[in-house]
# Entry
Amino acid sequence: MKRMMTFVFSVAAIFAVQAADGHFRVDLDGRQDRVTLTSEGGGEMNAVPQGWIKDPEAQKCTLMVWSRRKTSSTEWKICSFRFIPSKSGTVVLSVGAGEETAGENRRIQLLVDQIMLNGRLLPNGNFQQTYRTDDGRTVPTGFAAGGEAVLLPSAGLNGPAMLVSHDSRLGFRIKVEAGRSCELAFRVKTAPEQPSRPTSDTSLQEQLDRAVKDGKKTIELSAATYRLNETLRLRKLKDFTIDGRGAKLLMTSYVAAMHIEQCEDLTIRNLTVDYDPLPHTQGTVLGVDVENKLTRLRLHPGYPRPTNLTPIQAYPFSADRRQYKEGVNEHYGSRLIPREDPAEYDLWTHEPPVDFSAGDLVALRFGRYPCFWIRLTRNLTFETVTVNAAASLVFVARSCTGLQRYKDVRILPGGTLPPGATEPRLLSAGADGINYENSPARIELENCEFSFLGDDSMNIHGTALPLYRQISEHVIRILAPEDYSRLLKPGMTLRLLEPGNFTILAETPIASIKHLAEKAPEETKALFPRTMSIPPCRDIYEIALENPLPEVPAEAIIDFKEMNGLSFSVKNCHFHDHRAYGLRMMCSNGLIENNRFERLKGSAIVFGGEYAYWREAGFVDNLVIRNNVIDRVANYPDAASFAAISSIGRPEKRDIGVSRNGSRNIVIERNTISNCPYGGIQLFGVKNITVKDNILTDIGTVSPAWPRAVTLGFETMQPISIGSSVEACTIEENQICETK
# Structure
């Protein structure tokens, strides 16, 4: 609490010039509980229903209240008003100023240092108790700060005050009783004008390009905020560092923040990335029509209205905990249908919306671009980087090598609310936090925190590719992306996989690789399922193998062990409140140690290939999962795995069995797992695995198992469940307590 924003040291230092006076304003909203609000009139404040609400019934639940006289910058003034609620419920208040400007088109700013309710101080109405938001701001406990609203520790009459304006407001809620008059009183003063915070409209791309041209190896950002309408492009930088020095990159269009390509030894540190407007929105469910697959919802004030009404991804949240609803489906490819009130929509979903109830919150994702797009880059470090919003993937990397390092990286919903908003953000990003594909690299995470993602925390994988043609027992041809010409090396391991269940038929080192000039016929695109993350490939590679292959079955696929990643470590990280998995690892030679996983709808840790649907490779060899704390995960029965820690590798069809020799050499030890409804540890299709000294508490059981689990060899789901094709498995010294 002692660490305040750097410009908040003393009132005298901040307020250097006299400011124009302005009107104090409060907006009241009782629509959540359908509470009609009636102003009692009189006094020094005007009150009318909010005219921008077009639905007449909804408008009755709102008031806009403003002072008849302007506030003063020389003395504090009490602004009070009364209203009567029609029923008991919750009313949301937003405190700010009128629309006046104070020169150079800057909004009038007011100070508020005390709030009284019915003659008594509102809980924490003098702002003495505070909390720190995910983006580092200090905010009074029980309140939300929108826009640039900020707490000033000594600007009040006898202590702190909130600095607010028309676009930067203080939000809070009160409980009201039917028919009982409510009086609210605010102590207010016009804030003397502040010197503007440093921002930059100079092209950051130009600054970067100039630094590179001048031979500099480091660029330090001087502004506090850079508003960027276009992607910052980093191409062929070598031995270069970008030090943000705490700067924020505020993206003003739905594009990637950075595109990093063909760089080497690049470091990016001390940055925050956010979007304005946000690439997703949110609201409250008003009602559900299951038969017609419609959910009526109202967007929260201040949050963007989607310009494209389809496809929309909808995520149900609980209103009381503001977390993903447990055990329910999300809705993909949905469509928004506008209603007469511009803030209200009907959400049409492919499946009946049985997962929604009136009063639930819902997050809606409509963007598609990643935040950081990384390709063909060797030795990359992100350090002390925070991302507060991303449309889909946050860090997406393809065809990278060397050491890829993430230290003190945070992906969290931003604490800065959109102008006019009072509800905290629900989502940080719409998809994975980190996603690596076809990158023979070492990937390290340390001291990171990822939360409120629309998919996995981290996914490392390669690609399962079609075997195009067998020339001889030592020579084959495959179809693969163009980048493979840079990445495949002699000595890497090719794995030949049986169609359907992906049993490894052969493993052999590569002797040589030749990228052929000819292209495969157009019809070979049919060999690539539409669910693959790479588009259909027509580049042909001829690969000579050190050892002969057996007879290759029709429709066989292959992967390259090293292309799935060389090695990885994830240590001392915190992953919580995601829609899907924590770690989804298909890379060998890994260590997952001393991490905390909480409130994930999917498993905390899964390992092995997802060949069947996504064509993501591959099976894992040499993995240690140790000393992790896992609580309240894997509550999603429709997932491909059901336990906190699980192998994966489902077959393409349920009746053909799982791989007979998938992941191997796995150690799962000294982990603490609790409150998981369907299982703690789940294993199938693995070899040479040790499970020891784990503590499992309050783990649910399922008997008989679901059809999907039966496919994997599970007759029942237990705290530790062993399915099909498990060979050389040691289970010892585990503690299982209070099984449900």
